[in-house]
Amino acid sequence: MTSIERRYRRLILAYPKGPRREELLHTLLELAPPNRRHPTVRDVANILRYGVRARLGRPRSRSIVVLATLTALITGGFGAAAGSLLGWQFAPGLEGAVDRQGIGRTVFPGMAVKSCADDPADFSVEHCAKVPAFVWNPDHEGKRFGYLEYGVTPTPATRDHIAYTNGVRERLIADGWRMGSAIRVHQGVDDLDTSMLDGTSVPGVLPDFTTNVREATFWATRGDLVLEFFDATGTDDHGNPDPEATARFTIARSAPWWLWVMTAAGTLLGVPAGWLLTGWISRRTEVSPMATLIAAAPAWLVALPLTVGVLPLNDQVGRPWDEGFFVGLYAKLAPWPDLGFDTINPIAGMALCALAPALLTAVTARRPRH
Amino acid sequence: MREPTFWILTVLASAPHHGYGLIQQAARLSRGRVRLQAGTLYAALDRLSAEGLVELDREEIVDGRARRYYRLTNHGAAALDAEASRLRASADAARAQLATRTGVPGVAPA
Lengths: 370, 110
Hints:
By secondary structure, chain A is α+β, with helices and mostly antiparallel strands. In chain A, 46% of the residues lie in helices and 14% in strands. Chain A is elongated, with a radius of gyration of 28 Å.
């Protein structure tokens, strides 16, 4: 076998199994001048383009190309989600990071910094010992990166929330932290249905009302950590002078670089998998209009909603954008117990429901003749 | 009808051809203007087969390699004839328009 034949043989693998591969190979070899050692760029592009198309069968159909494209986008989205969730299994732990890096001393110098390990009553303890990759937002609306919380008993200094927050900001910058946001200040004008400063919601349409709450917050990042600082005074209970004063910070992971690689790898596996699966089902059901209908109707029904649903759109207000991206990916595979889906993710469930009849039909269909 | 399709049907109008022969003939008949790529050719043959314009004629083994010959169907011949008539009508219309063009350097009336 000559080198050019070997290379053409690799190239024609773009086509589905069948006599067309050999037929194409022989035509390519007959067309190639005697001194050619490598396929031309034009050959490669042409064979890949039409080989990938040939995998779908139904040469007259344009709709199969649209359906395969949407399916590839959907499986690419699920592949990204699977890759990122796998990657999170290897994410470094948060436990002990604050002590090791002396972050408590930087944020609250000279003060006794407590965490959930010291005072479970004051902090969320459900993930104190081992922080999962994703946890509920404080208001149980959606998820966020797992975090640990640290705080101090409020003092007159911390109650001067603007000045103290500015001081924290300066100390963190001097310690190598990069500010992710400007200091945002809550002036006591509250939306009834929002938690803007927690980053868990967006402004609502209900009328505003004024409370005594005043809060300043910002986030910063250093290495693979994200720090959020909160300093609040006042109360929205007019009978009580200042019960909600708090000075605290949270530490969460930022996505490590290799998580992006695993997410990209998941996408790169998912996209061709969706295309090939669509092609296999399409070719298997090609000879039977009834099989085509059973396979294609559910797929078309959910193709667009799934394409939109699989996009990792999850705006985490006031926090790093990549957190929204990865929380969005997580939401494509994890259950949604807050909406009653305790065991299965509704997006993945919808995809499986559409895929099941197509797979069943394809498996039981007669093998097409070439 | 796209140009590669037109030339594939044109080549097959006289006799069945295999892929390589079809590409060569298309280049010869079009005076080198149409150089079909192998992938483009077989995609077009698949589509034309599905439309009933061409069909498999026979398979031969040449130098240990299987060659598949394709032929034009009657439906394909009718489609080619209709396309040729359309092209002729278009060309005639263009020529008639050019013939009315007088006094323009480089263009002689028919």
